[in-house]
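Sharing a chain and its predicted structure for anyone who wants a worked example. Both blocks are below, sequence first, tokens second.
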Amino acid sequence: MQTQTYPSKLLERAVEELAKLPGIGNRTALRLALHLLRQPQPDVEQFLTAIGEMKNNIRFCSVCHNISDTDICSICSSPSRDKSTICVVETIKDVMSIENTMQYKGVYHVLGGVINPMEGIGPNDLTINSLIDRLSSNEVNEVIMALSATTEGDTTNFYIYKKIKHFNIVVTTLARGVAFGNELEYTDEITLGRALLNRIKFDNSFSVE
């Protein structure tokens, strides 16, 4: 493959940085860099300010670990949300996917990933202990395990279930309208909404039909 030559070292550096973003190759990075170069200076400065403020000022909710502008996110602090139901998800993007279904009125707990020994991710790298602390408050009636239908997701589901099954709560999981191997962010809203509404008890999910 022919190496791209640049008329400017500054442009080359900008392309290299943009190409570090997920899903962005060198050609797309070059197109984005040239687009920014053509924009008025105030627009570029506004763009850079927004990125800088996001990185420097965004917080993680002290309760559920979702991203927030304040110490406690808008979902956890909302009086209209059902605090007795916690939906356990893998990432912040999963919260956004479930919220888009408009079928869920409880609160969330973001693990920050799933157990994956191949990538060096163990239970202590996730917010599992924080979840257990929340369940100790006695105000939770149900925990919905809404992790991706992958081997790693199911492993994490089972690990958490063993840790919390002694609590006097119902543990449920998404109905298998979400195909095995699918991540929640790539599941359409209708399918995800139905899987959430038709959730089943976690211990029943081991039965083979």
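Comments welcome. The longest strand covers residues 82-89.
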